[in-house]
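Quick sanity check, Peroxiredoxin:
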Amino acid sequence: MALDVENATPTLPKIGDPAPSFTAKTTQGEISLSDYEGKWVVLFSHPADFTPVCSTEFISFARKNEEFEKRNVQLLGLSVDSLPAHLAWVTNIKEKMGVEIPFPVIADLNTAVAQKYGMIHPGASETATVRCVFVIDPKQTVRAIIYYPLNVGRSIDEILRLVDGLQTADKHSVAAPADWKPGDQVVEPAPTNVEGVNERLQGDLTGTDWYLKKKNLED
């Protein structure tokens, strides 16, 4: 995390920045972000253990874990609770709800990771992390950031869709339009010069125009 010398305040990671490195204790042992080079990472924070909305989110993440694994994605949870609290909570979820949490949950009691990623928003809470989601690519670059308030749970399906969109865009050099989901048409990059515009106008643009051209991935 960089430092704004003029204002003496931390600069939060932005899309396209290197993901801030860290080493931390988790429910599955000590990990470093660098352990996951070559994989996608979804790093998400929750306000606190043993809270109702957070529990529903963890259950939903756990139930979708195999879908994330199919996409070469490692889930990493985090809150500023202690390791014993995390262990007690995930054990409780397994015993009472019948769901095992298969991914590491980072214990960030000293807020070291939370501060690097801007997960604590004083306007919402001085001590709890808001519901942040950071999608980090295999080169350890931040590719997407989502913030949710303390009182609204996340859509896990939307996070999966976001990962699908990023991976599809990278693989095929295209973009994902609004409400896109796998199997839908994608958008070709817009022309960057007059020659490209003229070439585009000579093609089939039914229902679109030179700056907006959709296609099927198999085209």
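Posting the structure with no commentary besides this: The helical segments are 52-63, 65-70, 83-97, 112-117, 156-172, 194-201.
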